[in-house]
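User: My notes are a mess, but here's the protein and zinc ion's SMILES. Can you give me a structure?
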Amino acid sequence: MALIIYSGGLDSTVLLYKLVSEGAADGALAVNYGQRHARELEFARCNCLRLGVPFEVADISGLRPLFGESSLTDTSISVPDGDYNPENMKSTVVPNRNMIMLSIAAARAIAIGSGSVAYAAHSGDHSIYPDCRPEFADAMAGVLKLCHYTPITLLRPFIGMSKADIVRLGADLGVDFSLTWSCYKGGLAHCGTCGTCIERRKAFEIAGIPDPTEYAG
Ligand SMILES: [Zn+2]
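Assistant: No problem, the inputs look usable. Here's the predicted complex:
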């Protein structure tokens, strides 16, 4: 049984459905770190309600001023358009985000008596985000084993999968992709032009699955 780190994004929604289908979901935890795309949290709540999974939000938005200049949290910096590449995506890094989220989720898992934390890291996660490297996740898995009297297991079932593989799995599991959010810019519709929107579009194309997302551009 696992506590799922759940943002309301495409990957973590498929993870939620997968664990529910296996009867392995203890709960879902979103971390509100002051991201401008807070709409994803609405979708997260909606999907958990549908599936009957307890949903909680860890609100650490009060820490936002400490995170420095990142376009994901600071509305005075614009999110770059175009494909992911090191130069245009550097401004979207929230420093050490995955360690913060894993740490909070491990604490919550311990508090609710869950033995595992699951998150949706996949093979396409970008080297521009140092805390998306497999070596980082391996090290965190080691830390989670040691952070409590009994080991907490870190589950990463998508680590060998591409985003297109995840879309295919989600389609098999009956995920309503229109209730998932990817765009880093926020707003009411996906922009269609930022790095994560481009990646989302490509994943549906490669998977051969109809994309129900309404893109603004
Ligand atoms: Zn976008």
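The two ends are 41 Å apart (CA to CA).
User: Great, I'll file this with my notes.
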